[in-house]
Amino acid sequence: MNSERTILIPIPALFSFDECLWFLNRNYDDCLHIIKDGAIFKSIEIEKEILLICIKENGGFLELDILVGEPSQENKAYLVAYVREWFDMDTNIQPFYDKLKTDGRLAYMTERYKGLRLIGISNLFEAICWCIIGQQINLSFAYKVKRRLVERYGPRIDFNNESYYTFPEPEILANVDIDDLKAMQFSQQKADYVIGIAKAFASGSLDKESLRALPDFTARKKALTAHKGIGAWTANYALMKSLKEPEGIPHGDIGLLNALSSHNIIHERSETSKIEALFSNFAGWESYLVFYLWRSLTVKVLE
DNA sequence: AACCAGGCGCATG
DNA sequence: CATGCGCATGGT
Predict the structure, then answer these.
(1) Average pLDDT for A63-79
(2) pLDDT at A1 over 60
(3) Which domains does chain A show, CATH number per domain?
(4) DSSP letter string over A62-124?
(5) Between the CA of A179 and the C1' of C7, what is the distance in angstroms?
(6) Closest nucleotide to residue A141 (Cα to C1')?
(7) Given this model, what pLDDT does residue A303 score?
(8) How many degrees, rounded to 5, is the angle at CA A190 between CA A253 and CA A228?
(9) Which nucleotide's C1' atom has the smallest distance to the CA of A187?
(10) Protein residue minimizing CA–C1' distance to C12
(11) Rounded CA gap, A139 and A13, in Å?
């Protein structure tokens, strides 16, 4: 590999690339990256140009290879920032581990999931669409619907007999025929929601930077739930995954409730005070706690 | 066949 | 503000 196309990112303490691989490869068919031989392949759009990168572990570094695209200094800096944000490499998670260790029900996680980072979804539009698709349906089906959408409307590049997709632009989804979405097994409401959100992004009335600029978490949540299709769960999930907001707890999430139940923290989903009590002990690390609880769920294996 | 799945919007108390 | 209900649609 031409060294001009290779970048090394130092791996921080309490970071596990294997946990990144586990999460991105956990028996689901995600259409926005490919895992092969311990490496992650992903296409990333930088100002209308699509680049393809490969990420693998190399000693104490993540090795980032630019397989397709122009490795200008600007692009390299962007890609490094992208990966650091995606894998949340700039956060010192030791304080979170200190909290986990004080809870006998959860302390084991500091060893079993050691170095697991909150894997993000940088693209806010993608994160919200993914939420809408996933509302109240099982994840296997949700990933299928997402794949249909992305393969139809998302930019594609080909490399070594594989096709790599990036998420469709809002401008594209804002103008799709609703019947085309319904043919992909979108329900009427979800098709309406996705098109509405796409129009909001396309018109500039919703975007990540403006959202980030709002004064606090409550304001950001309110700005999101003002849109049809974004309820409390979606708003919290999007803030957790795209803006890496610690307070983004997707309350009511079935996976979260199942994990709380399996750890004997609750026995009924109505025990909200117990949930609040738990999260109040993890102030500043709520989203990390959610992510670790999700990690503890056993994923169904597809045939 | 019935119940479930990483909810949401809207109408009522 | 909390609760209840209809909604869509595939998976098990």
Answers:
(1) 97
(2) no
(3) 6-90 (3.30.310.20), 92-117+244-303 (1.10.1670), 121-238 (1.10.340.30)
(4) EEEEEEES---HHHHHHHHHHHHHHTTTT---HHHHHHHHT-TTTTTHHHHTTT--------H
(5) 18
(6) C10
(7) 31
(8) 80
(9) C8
(10) A138
(11) 32
pTM above the 0.85 mark? yes
Nearest to A125 by CA among A214, A47, A189, A211: A211
Measure, in angstroms, how far nucleotide B4 C1' is from residue A9 CA.
43
Q: What is the pLDDT of residue A270?
A: 85
The answer to whether residue A179 is catalytic is no
Q: Out of A30, A180, A192, A253, which one is annotated catalytic?
A: A253
- Strand C nucleotides in reach of protein CB atoms, 7 A cut-off: 7-12
With a 7 Å cutoff on the CB, does A230 touch strand B?
yes
pLDDT number for residue A27: 77
pLDDT at A150 over 80: yes
Q: Which of A219, A256, A258, A214 is CA-nearest to residue A235? A: A219
Nucleotide at minimal C1' distance from the A185 CA: C9
**How many Å from the CA of A257 to C1' of B1?**
27
Mean pLDDT of chain A: 95
Distance of CA A187 to the CA centre of its chain: 23
Is the distance from CB of A242 to CB of A124 less than 8 angstroms? yes
Per residue in A98-131, pLDDT tens? 999 999 999 999 999 999 999 999 999 999 999 9
